[in-house]
Write a structure and sequence with these properties.
By secondary structure, the chain is of the alpha/beta class. Helices cover 31% and strands 22% of the residues. The strands form six sheets. The chain has a four-stranded mixed β-sheet with strand order 2-15-17-16, covered by helices on one side. A four-stranded mixed β-sheet has the order 4-5-3-14, covered by helices on one side. A hairpin with a 2-residue loop joins strand 12 and strand 13. Helix 1 runs parallel beside helix 2, helix 1 packs across helix 7 and helix 3 packs parallel to helix 6.
Length: 423
C-alpha cells in the first residue's frame, strides 16, 4: 500500500487523542496474566503488536475479554503458570511477544513452539534463549532463531543470571518479569544496558502489581523469590512515541498540537524526554492537569543530542531537522540498526531521496538544513520510518510512503488521524 501525504499551507492547530502506550500495554498484559485474580486494564492500545500479545496469551490458556468500544480488557491471571501445557505462539512482528513470552514459557511447565514474521526472525533473541536454557529450559532444535520449540521447567532455577543486553533491553525485562517465580532469589547482571528507561518501566510496573525489585546498580537487579503478582485495575498512558509525530507536525508548521494529559515528571515512558528536545529546538511545551500542548516556533534550531535512552523518537527528530536553521546531530543510536529495520540507514536513505543533506556514522546521523523535494519513500515496512516521513510530507507536496500499512503495528489509525489534522 502506498500513502500520499497531503501538504498543508498554514500552521496546524489540532487536538488529538493518542492511543495507549504499546510498551506499557504489553507489559501490563503479561503481568496481569501472571497475577492472582482478575485485572481490568484501561486505555489499552489495540494494534498489530498488542493483538499478537493478546492472541498468544489466549493460546496459552489465559482468559482475556477485550472491549474494543472502550479500549479496555479483563485478564484472569494464571498465578505464574499458563493453563495450556502445549501451544504454538505466533509472535507476528512483535519483539515484546517473542522476548517476554519466551521467558514466561521457559519458566512454566509445557512445550511451546515459537515462530514469527521473517522480519522478526532476523531480530536478536539468541542471548536470551541461551540464558533461559542455562536456567533449566530446553530447546528441541539446535536453533538460536525462530522457529524453535522450548520446553519449560518449574520456574527458573534462580541464583545469579548474567545476560548480554547490548542488543535489546527487552532481554532484561523478560527475565525480570518471570524472576519472582524462581526456585531461589535472583540476581540479574548485565554489562551494557541499552534503553535503560524501558527496564525502569518494567521494574515500576512489577511494583505496581505487587512485586519487589531491588536495583543495586544500573546493571544489577535483585529479585527476592518466591513472590506473587496481585491483579489490579490499571490505566495505560498515552503512547509518547506516537505522540512525537503529532508534536512534530506543530513544530514544522509553526502550529499548535494538544493531546490528553501526560505527567512529565512521573511518566513511565522514556520518550517523554522528546519534549525537552523540542523545547531546545525552540518549541513551547505547556503541561496541565488535563492536556499537553506543543507550540511550534517561527524558526527551528538544530540540536546535538544523545538519544540512546529514547531512540524510538530519533526518526521523528531526523524528519524535523531539515527545517531547522542549523544542523542536527543525533548520537548513540547504534542499537536501532537491529530493530524493525536498520533505522539509521533507512532514515539516511529516505532523506537522500528527498535531496536532504545527511551524513551517517556507525551510531549517529547528522542532518543539515535543506529544501526537501517530492519522492517515493521506502518505509522498509517499519512503522516508525513511515510515520516519520509523513512529517516532511506536511511541508513538501508529493511525498508518498511505500508499504504504509506497516503503521498498524502500533497505530492502525495513524493516517486517518494525520489527514484529520488538515480538516
Amino acid at each position: 500500500m502506498k500513502q500520499l501525504i497531503r501538504a498543508v499551507n498554514s500552521p496546524i492547530h489540532a487536538h488529538v487523542t493518542i492511543p495507549g502506550s504499546k510498551s506499557i500495554t504489553n507489559r501490563a498484559l503479561l503481568l496481569a496474566a501472571l497475577s492472582e485474580g482478575v485485572a481490568e486494564i484501561f486505555d489499552i492500545l489495540l494494534s498489530d503488536d498488542t493483538w499478537a500479545f493478546i492472541n498468544a496469551l489466549k493460546e496459552l490458556g489465559i482468559v482475556i475479554q477485550v472491549d474494543e468500544s472502550t479500549n479496555s480488557c479483563l485478564v484472569a491471571g494464571g498465578m505464574g503458570e499458563f493453563p495450556h501445557k502445549e501451544a504454538s505462539i505466533w509472535c507476528d512482528n512483535a519483539g515484546t511477544v517473542a522476548r517476554f513470552l519466551l521467558a514466561a514459557c521457559a519458566a512454566t511447565p509445557g512445550v511451546y513452539r515459537f515462530d514469527a514474521s521473517p522480519q522478526l526472525r532476523r531480530r536478536p533473541i539468541a542471548a536470551l534463549l541461551r540464558t533461559l536454557c542455562g536456567q533449566g529450559a530446553k530447546v528441541l532444535e539446535e536453533s538460536e532463531s525462530m522457529p524453535f520449540t522450548i520446553v519449560g521447567s518449574e520456574g527458573l532455577r534462580g541464583g545469579e543470571i548474567e545476560i548480554e543486553s547490548s542488543e535489546s533491553s527487552q532481554f532484561v525485562s523478560a527475565l525480570l518479569m518471570v524472576a519472582p517465580f524462581a526456585a531461589s532469589p535472583v540476581l540479574i547482571k548485565t554489562h551494557e544496558l541499552v534503553s535503560n528507561p524501558y527496564v525502569d518501566m518494567t521494574c515500576a510496573m512489577m511494583a505496581d502489581f505487587g512485586v519487589l525489585v531491588r536495583r543495586m546498580h544500573s546493571t544489577r537487579f535483585s529479585i527476592p523469590a518466591p513472590q506473587r503478582y496481585v491483579a489490579r485495575d490499571y490505566t495505560i498512558e498515552p503512547d509518547l512515541s506516537t505522540a512525537s509525530y503529532f508534536f512534530a507536525a506543530a513544530a514544522v508548521t509553526a502550529g499548535k498540537m494538544t493531546i490528553q494529559a501526560v505527567d512529565r515528571i512521573n511518566s513511565k515512558q522514556a520518550d517523554v524526554e522528546f519534549l525537552s528536545v523540542l523545547e531546545k529546538m525552540g518549541c513551547e511545551v505547556i503541561s496541565t492537569d488535563t492536556v499537553l500542548t506543543v507550540k511550534g516556533p517561527e524558526k527551528l534550531q538544530g540540536i546535538n543530542v544523545d538519544m540512546r535512552h529514547f531512540s524510538d523518537t530519533f526518526m521523528t527528530l531526523a524528519a524535523i531537522a531539515p527545517f531547522a536553521e542549523t544542523p542536527t546531530m543525533i548520537t548513540n543510536i547504534a542499537h536501532t540498526r537491529q530493530q524493525e529495520s536498520n533505522r539509521i540507514s533507512a532514515m539516511r536513505e529516505g532523506l537522500e531521496r528527498l535531496q536532504v543533506k545527511v551524513e551517517e556514522g556507525p551510531d549517529w546521523l547528522k542532518i543539515y538544513p535543506s529544501k526537501p523535494v517530492a519522492a517515493l519513500i521506502d518505509s522498509h515496512s517499519d512503522h516508525r520510518i513511515a510515520m516519520a516521513f509523513s512529517i516532511i510530507g506536511l511541508r513538501v507536496p508529493g511525498i508518498e510512503i511505500e508499504h504504509a500499512e506497516c503503521v498498524a503495528k502500533t497505530c492502525p489509525t495513524f493516517f486517518e488521524m494525520w489527514d484529520g489534522l488538515q480538516a
